[in-house]
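Inputs:
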Amino acid sequence: MSVSQTAFHTALLDPSQAVPDGLVDSSDQPAGRRFSVYRNNVAVSLTEAMHQAFPVITKLLGTQNMDGLSGIFLRKHPPTTPLMMFYGEEFPQFLTGMEQLAHLGYLADVALLELALRRSYHATDSTAVDAKALAVSAEEVMQAKLEFAPSMQVIRSEWPIFSIWRFNTQDDAPKPQAIGEDVLVTRPEYDPAPHLLPAGGADWIADMMTGLTIGQAFENTSAMTPEFDLGTTLALLLQGGAITSVTIERLAQ
Amino acid sequence: MLDNAIRSNRLPSAPGVGYKPQHFAEILEHANPVAWLEIHAENYMGDGGRPLAQLRHLSEQFPISVHGVGLSIGGEARLDADHLSRLKHLVGWLNPASFSEHLAWSTHDSHFLNDLLPLPYTDATLARICEHIDQVQDIVGRQMLLENPSSYLAFEESTWSEPEFLAEITRRTGCGLLLDVNNVFVSATNLDFSPQGYIDAYPLDKVGEIHLGGHDEDEDDHGHPLLIDSHGREVVDPVWALLDYVLEKSGPKPVLIEWDTDVPDWPVLRAEAERAQTALDRIPA
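Outputs:
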């Protein structure tokens, strides 16, 4: 009796399936719970990968609930590459689809923030511009185009995800208030850190990434969000080492 | 067949350990007797950041062994071309002293199962594995070592013993072997064969590296001992004794301590490496 990898794979991920025939112990008896060692290794190692990827979600839900949720997730979305450092990309969407968790609407966006932190951690290294790169006249600043570090991430949310993240990772952090928060992740050297973006900041960065000048993007953003604070946004980017190039187009004579 | 011109670096016949980032600073300060480090290839396939920076730094001071856990050499399907090119890239820039993978499969139907799954030892499996190893050695451009698995069950359809199967693979592909002494002990206990008999039948002249690790104890449905390769504790005395048996026959080899779960503080891991050094020192001249 030969055992195909399809049969092995199916039985591995579905404990209700019988152990494939043809797997035996040393007395040629059916393998029985010896097969469970493999089932267990797969489930435990992938659950552990989920805990590592989503420590704040694990804290919010409790370890036991996270174990149960991981068990469902890993069967629905087994890894598709051996790079376990990126496992769990589908988790935010999976959380959105879980009816039992509908009352915790912020979970998916907190998971997105955790994914962004991890993506930043493994992103390509880059060299930030000196903070003085924008110490030019206000007119010239408005003409500048920027390039950003691969480790920079922006997550927008209708939930207070920055405050939730901070409340669950830092002692004495203030309680989250019911407001939407956009988050900027920067990685000055090797440790990514999230920062709260001012209103309109995420729109402005998105515009800058399409190649607009600071002035053009500022105009667009201010039209939508009159209180947009360009200075704070630029300071967060510069301090976080997230700007890798400043190009100032010479003003027309 | 591997081209003889392909360069084959070597690990020193000394103790090494599986590298864990939490030990970075202490390894740089108090490595002795640890003379080389092993990394899991897949953990260093990101684009940048601290993991790669640490690895670059360590590789300036220690010979590095790249140990893959995700290639699925025994898979029924073709090898994953993307993963092969990631491996080629890593081995290319790091230029490690050794590169190894497992006699196992882990990917099927584009699902990576994150475990080393068992294979039937048949002519069909043999042909497939040799084809895959040829492909890996061609693409990565160097000899690879193949590691024997920990077995919890057997396949009725198997027609080869494991040592003969491995010997035939080395003969056909020119690959070397990574002998995991703990895996031999685990499989021998689980499947009722003599670990010394296994070593006697095993082509020790092809061994480029030895692994040691801790295992857990369980039982099967019939109360038979079932050892589980967990890499989460000290190496047990019978496995150290089996190492002595191997080294007496093979002569000095690079000996690695693997400790991947419940990773201990550096002094505990270093003490295991000291024990490996003692075993190497005992080899009769």
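Remarks. The first helix of chain B runs from residue 24 to 29. The CA atoms of residues 89 and 185 of chain B lie 35 Å apart.
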